[in-house]
Amino acid sequence: MPWVFFPPQLAQRWPELKDAQFPGATVAEVFGHMERAYPGLSSALLEPSGALRQEVVALIGGRPLQDREGLSDPVGEEDDLYIFPRRG
After folding, report:
1. Can you name the CATH fold of 3-85?
2. How many degrees, rounded to 5, is the angle at CA 62 between CA 46 and CA 13?
3. Range 30-40 average pLDDT
4. Where are the domains of the chain?
5. What distance in Å separates the CA atoms of residue 29 and residue 23, rounded to the nearest whole number?
6. 3-5 and 20-21 strand pairing
7. What is the mean pLDDT of the chain?
8. Going edge to edge, which strands form the sheet with 63-64?
9. Residues 6 or more apart in contact with residue 9 via CB below 8 angstroms
10. Are 66 and 73 in contact (CB under 8 A)?
11. What is the pLDDT of residues 2-32, one digit of tens each?
């Protein structure tokens, strides 16, 4: 199951938020499980359309997402998913 690593900025709104493993074969599936664990988290990371917000960076195994719109990138069992704010 992939590990997801969150930026400390999100802890202000979700104090219980911790790096954790979430199931899913795609980024969209992992984000769905994250939302169920932390209601409202998706609104901080995703546009209303479901696309990754421009100010958010997500890396799978050190590689940027290829599909920022549909989040269809595959996530392997051993992959790490890093989420952090884009530097200005």
Report:
1. Ubiquitin-like (UB roll) (3.10.20)
2. 35
3. 96
4. 3-85
5. 7
6. antiparallel
7. 93
8. 20-21, 3-5, 80-85, 56-60, 63-64
9. 85
10. yes
11. 999 999 888 888 899 999 999 999 999 999 9
Question: What do you get for the CA distance between the two ends of the chain, in Å?
Answer: 32
Paired with 16 in beta bridges are: none
CB neighbours of residue 47 within 10 Å = 14
* Amino acid making up residue 83: I
DSSP for 65-77 reads -S-TTT---B--T
Contact by Cβ (8 Å): 52, 28: no
Which tokens belong to 55? 């100010």
Q: Is the whole-model pTM more than 0.90?
A: yes
58 CB-near residues (< 8 Å, 6+ apart): 27, 52, 64, 65, 81, 82, 83
The residue type found at 84 is: F
- The pLDDT value given to residue 88: 59
Query: What pLDDT is attached to residue 75?
Result: 96
Which residue reads 């359309």 in tokens?
49
